[in-house]
Design brief:
The chain is an alpha/beta fold. It has a single domain, classed as Aldolase class I (TIM Barrel, Alpha-Beta Barrel). It is built from 13 helices and ten strands. The chain has an eight-stranded parallel beta sheet with strand order 1-8-7-6-5-4-3-2. It has a two-stranded antiparallel sheet with strand order 9-10.
Length: 348
């Protein structure tokens, strides 16, 4: 089996990971996390959502956080090589991103999102797909004029938590449409863990057949049913080279209860046990790829350290196995010794 020799891995803990937490994660912790991710070698980091914080209070600190990141002395020597992304589902969020960019602290990249399932899309955006595509076509141009890159995400590729099965061919069509209206890259998202490894491989093979170059396609996988790393392997086998994940595998729908207060989020959770949702564990993903000889350009030991601290930040044990077991040694440890067999006289 042929695998890519190197991959790009983006981190989305500070945005997607923390948005599902039912306690507010302090700005200082988000800043620390972002700084450490940059120091570990990440070049693509998703840090906030510029939508209305009334329903998503985890992002009430969006502007102060972005300002703090831009002013950080710890990463000043690296920051020009890092792309920071903010989610901007609707028009006002895009306009906010553009204004912040003009003021010197806005995102380098913004993210729009469509679902192949109309009901899921309306729930996430409040618009029909027809109206949303029209909105994106206009606002992608505005973002580009402000020097901001744009990601177009396609969701419910392998199934919808509301409607059920979906058609993967529709997601390929949506991907082409994103590029046609100016998106710089496309995220392919299994937002609820509906995908099985065989269908992951089939879909990304379809993407490679259609677009050939994998560099502008990002693999976003959840591990709701425990298949996350198996799905990542299937995507690698299909030729994908661009992934994203979260520390400890946290993340999911915006929480509808934050620090003791009920909020709207995106409504009821899709699963009775909200802890089941979550992305592929970053720590396990990078350790697995390292063992496979795939270059990530990340400081893997530092990634594991960040993972351990993430558990302390959120206050519970997370899904990473690698922060418990560590990396597999690449050389002899020197801890062993040769034990000679006993002589015949000793045996007697």
């Amino acid at each position: 089996m042929q695998y890519p020799k190197k991959v790009t891995i983006g981190d989305i803990t500070v945005r997607d990971g923390f948005q599902h937490e039912e306690k507010y994660i302090p700005l200082e912790a988000k800043l620390w996390m972002t700084e450490q991710l940059v120091l570990a070698g990440y070049k693509h980091i998703e840090v906030t959502n510029l939508g209305n914080p009334v329903g998503m209070p985890q992002f009430k600190d969006a502007d102060p956080l972005m300002k703090a990141i831009r002013k950080s002395k710890k990463i000043a020597h690296l920051i020009n090589d890092v792309s920071f992304t903010a989610v901007t589902i609707r028009e006002k969020a895009v306009e906010r991103a553009i204004e912040n960019r003009k003021e010197g602290f806005g995102p380098d990249r913004i993210l729009f999102m469509v679902s192949t399932s109309e009901s899921h899309h309306i729930k996430n955006s409040g618009l029909s797909l027809k109206d949303y595509w029209k909105m994106c076509e206009k606002h992608i141009k505005l973002a580009h004029d402000a020097g901001i890159k744009v990601n177009g995400t396609v969701s419910t590729i392998w199934g919808c938590p509301i409607e059920g099965p979906t058609d993967m061919k529709k997601a390929v069509e949506f991907t082409k449409r994103w590029f046609d209206i100016g998106a710089n890259d496309v995220e392919h998202a299994d937002h609820d863990g509906s995908a099985s490894p065989d269908r992951i491989h089939k879909y990304f093979s379809m993407i490679m057949d259609e677009f050939q170059n994998p560099n502008k396609h990002i693999v976003h996988l959840h591990t709701t049913r425990g298949w996350g790393l198996a799905n990542a392997l299937a995507a690698l086998q299909a030729g994908m080279t661009n992934f994203e994940a979260t520390m400890g595998g946290i993340g999911g729908q915006p929480a509808n209860f934050v620090s003791g207060v009920p909020v709207s989020g995106t409504g009821d959770y899709y699963y009775a046990d909200s802890s089941l949702v979550g992305l592929v564990s970053m720590e396990d993903l990078v350790v697995m790829m390292d063992e496979m000889g795939i270059e990530t350009n990340l400081d893997i030991d530092k990634v594991l350290e960040i993972g351990k601290m993430t558990e302390r930040i959120v206050g519970r044990r997370l899904r990473s196995e690698s922060i418990k077991t560590g990396r597999i040694p690449k050389s002899l440890t020197g801890r062993g010794s040769i034990i000679e067999a006993p002589s015949q006289s000793e045996v007697k």
